[in-house]
Amino acid sequence: MRQRTLLLIAFGVLLLATIFVAGQLVTEEMLAVSFADKHLAPSLQHLYGTDWFGRDMFLRTLKGLSLSLVIGAASTIGAGIVAVFIGTAAALGGKRVDACIKWLTDVVMGMPHLILLILVAFLFGKGPQGIIIGMVLTHWTYLSRIVRAEVLQIKSSQYVKAARSFGRSRLHIAFRHLLPHVFPQFLVGLVLMFPHTILHEASLTFLGFGLSPHQPGVGVILSESLKYLSTGQWWTALLPGLSLLAVVRLFDRLGERLQALYHPNQAHD
Fold first, then answer.
1. Residue 56, phi then psi, degrees to nearest 5
2. Is 256 within a domain?
3. Using one digit for the tens of pLDDT, what is the confidence trace for 185-194?
4. Entry pTM
5. Tell me: the pLDDT tens digits for 142-201?
6. What residues are paired with 56 via a beta bridge?
7. In three state form, how does the secondary structure of 180-215 look?
8. Which CATH number do you get for residue 239?
9. What is the rounded CA–CA span in Å between residue 176 and residue 163?
10. CB-hemisphere CA count at 13 Å for 118?
11. Closest CA to 120 of 103, 109, 132
12. Overall domain count for the chain
């Protein structure tokens, strides 16, 4: 189990790096309009075919996935930092602070997730910045509850009580004793959150509240491709969509494996 998980981690990191580097190498000239090559089905020359402007769909998908990975990573890290801060504050701040954070968490989790994302992203001007801020402000809730539960459990341990008896401050105890023990759960939470942020970025863009049509993005490709599905150009939507789902499923599976390593008694395979 451990060896397979390490191999999956290595493969996931390699895939991320490959997609990112390949996407950065795709230039505007490589995506230039070529009406002589439009509406071409998938072939060895164009693996994903070409679109209505003759642009190579494989190169467009690589460029879009590269941007999605950057947005997803930034959103995940930002939401993770917020979750750790809020979860630790709830566990160490006393009953009033805990009650206020519980109320805030319930309010955020009680609102329809996609609608809240749309409102926040629209408020901050859409685009990559609006998407990242929207996901940071809406994706911290689940992980913050996990962090709170872990901190509550650890703070009653003997070594934390000993640190208090020596007059250590709450901040010192949090950074020196609590957060290192919370890190494995935090890492698993980040990996599980990452595919959700990628899907939500594509969903927002597909609905017209994310990236603009002039920016590369899988959501932009899928939204534009809907107009041409009825003409038989299935490859313009199917292949980019399957590529996105493959990346999402890979990291979802990776998160499950990491969770099984951290809780071996819950593993079933």
1. -70, 120
2. yes
3. 888 888 888 9
4. 0.84
5. 899 888 888 888 877 777 777 777 777 767 777 777 777 888 888 888 888 898 899 888
6. 50
7. HHHHHHHHHHHHHHHHHHHHHHHHHHHHCCCCCCCC
8. 1.10.3720.10
9. 10
10. 12
11. 132
12. 1
